[in-house]
UniProtKB/TrEMBL annotation:
Its EC number is 3.1.3.5. Gene3D superfamilies: HAD superfamily/HAD-like (3.40.50.1000), Putative phosphatase, domain 2 (1.10.150.240). InterPro entries: HAD-like_sf (IPR036412), HAD-SF_hydro_IA (IPR006439), HAD-SF_hydro_IA_YjjG/PynA (IPR011951), HAD_sf (IPR023214), PGP-like_dom2 (IPR023198), Pyrimidine_5'-ntase_YjjG (IPR052550). This is YjjG family noncanonical pyrimidine nucleotidase. The keyword Hydrolase applies. Pfam families: Hydrolase. It comes from Flavobacterium rhizophilum. It comes from the Bacteria. GO terms for molecular function: 5'-nucleotidase activity. Keywords: Hydrolase.
Amino acid sequence: MKLAEKKAIFFDLDHTLWDFEKNSALTFETILQKHQVRVNVSEFIKLYIPINLKYWKMFRDGHIGQQELRYKRLKETFDAVGFNVDDELINNLWEDYIELLPTFNHLHDGAVEILEYLSPKYSLHIITNGVQEVGKLKNSEIHHYFETITNSEHAGYKKPDARIFEYALKAANIEKPHGVMVGDCIEADVQGALNCGLDAIYFNENKLAVKEGISQINHLLELKNFL
């Protein structure tokens, strides 16, 4: 990675800057109480996390659509906790979840500090497969750091498809050698960017084993060692 050439940093949002797990847990606590769903919330959230990741991968790979993603990950979690739920309740929960989720504003440790550090030196951008990114950025008060926001809905492609990275580079008016992608998903963010010819840094917060040659950080402030 030729650091002297870099002019732009492309960030993933959920699980990288924006603390999805914490904000999602707070959202579930609120909506389960609102709808008087009597489950152990901690157990529900613990089971939901891996189920959600499984269905996100299926969605990312094009095996299911957005509506299936929303329905199946919630239905499977209720089945796992042994709570009988009808489709109407699932739909009501998801409507409330989608509306409420971006109102929570927890960020990963060091997010604001690293954005403050990087913004005078580089243009900053978002590439995400998620939704409601503008609301999340505004409510967490980091929207002003980013010049462009590319999401899969607008681009027409999801990470790791090279075409979403091409779309983001064009929107940012940045050539590949001058950009670097930072994200938490080794497949979607890192390998997707590398396959496109864009350098990448893996936000490996959980210190998972990765193949040799992958640039990685365990804390956002470690980006200072690269950039």
